[in-house]
């Protein structure tokens, strides 16, 4: 039986509601994304059956192997590191790409989106802790990246995403909420600052506190990855 998924979702939703009641407006929409890496499609579909409407994919190859078996009622976002030569495989089936951190990658997505006849929603990934090992644009270069990607007609910037350094979630989320609200208050030609994608299994309630509206949760729903 897969009762674990039901129990986990129940607990996570309770925590989200609790944090939301404390820190957010009642009308705020906070989406729960199930991050599917290493999880068999049958278990992913169980989560969809329990009302999860958003799936997060990290690896192109793994996604291509599983996507035809996914319950079609869920929307799929790509959240992992994306190589330019793989964009064409996902461009017509994902609704958003969370991990854009350079004009070069944005321009490649723009090109493939044009070919596929779509406008791709993207988030700009911020390396909020300035870690050498992580992808993401530095906070200092973020505004420039928003301007440069704004020139591209076949992508649309929808907001920001981050993966904070270990043990520094709160400070990082606080900084991200500042960057996000600063950009939100400006007018950009081709960007709508609507989405703040942050918070994973260990820190999603904190992310709610600092304004996240997409929580990306993997192991908290499906159990530890093997
Ligand atoms: C794996 C992953 C997650 C989910 O991590 P958990 O700790 O299992 O919840 C979220 N975002 C990204 C980008 C990931 O790669």
What's the helix and strand layout?
Elements: H1 3-23, E1 31-35, H2 41-49, E2 54-57, H3 60-66, E3 75-78, H4 87-90, E4 96-100, H5 103-116, E5 120-126, H6 142-149, E6 155-162, H7 169-184, E7 191-197, H8 204-209, E8 214-217, H9 219-222
Parallel strand pairs: 1-2, 1-8, 2-3, 3-4, 4-5, 5-6, 6-7
Report on this structure.
Helix content is 39%, strand content 19%. The protein is built from nine helices and eight strands. An eight-stranded parallel β-sheet has the order 7-6-5-4-3-2-1-8. The chain is globular and about 50 Å long. The model has no long low-confidence stretch (mean pLDDT 97).
Tags for this model:
single chain; 226 residues; alpha/beta; TIM Barrel; eight-stranded parallel β-sheet; binds pyridoxal-5'-phosphate
| Helix/strand order | HEHEHEHEHEHEHEHEH
Fill in the CATH topology: TIM Barrel
Rg over C-alpha atoms, rounded to the nearest angstrom: 17 Å
Termini separation (Å)? 18 Å
The helix content, as a percent range, equals 25-40%
Low-confidence runs: none
Let me know the CATH homologous superfamily: Alanine racemase
Enumerate the distinct ligands.
pyridoxal-5'-phosphate
Strand content: 15-25%
User: How many separate structural domains?
Assistant: 1
């Amino acid at each position: 039986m897969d009762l674990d998924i039901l129990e986990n979702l129940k607990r996570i939703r309770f925590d989200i509601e609790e944090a939301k009641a404390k820190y957010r407006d009642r009308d705020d929409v906070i989406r729960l994304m199930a991050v599917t890496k290493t999880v068999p499609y049958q278990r992913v579909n169980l989560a969809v059956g329990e009302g999860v409407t958003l799936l997060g994919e990290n690896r192109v190859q793994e996604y291509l192997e599983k996507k035809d078996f996914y319950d079609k009622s869920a929307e799929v976002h790509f959240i992992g590191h994306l190589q330019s030569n793989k964009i064409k495989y996902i461009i017509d089936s994902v609704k958003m790409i969370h991990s854009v951190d350079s004009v070069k990658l944005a321009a490649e997505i723009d090109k493939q989106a044009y070919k596929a006849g779509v406008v791709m929603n993207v988030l700009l990934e911020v390396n909020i802790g300035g870690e050498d090992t992580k992808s993401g644009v530095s906070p200092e270069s973020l505004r420039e990246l928003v301007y440069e990607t704004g020139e591209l007609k076949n992508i649309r910037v929808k907001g920001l995403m981050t993966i904070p350094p270990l043990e520094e979630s709160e400070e990082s989320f606080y900084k991200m909420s500042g960057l996000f609200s600063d950009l939100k208050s400006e007018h950009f030609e081709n960007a709508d600052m609507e989405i703040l994608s942050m918070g994973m299994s260990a820190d999603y309630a904190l992310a709610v506190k600092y304004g996240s509206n997409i929580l990306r949760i993997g192991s908290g729903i499906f159990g530890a990855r093997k």
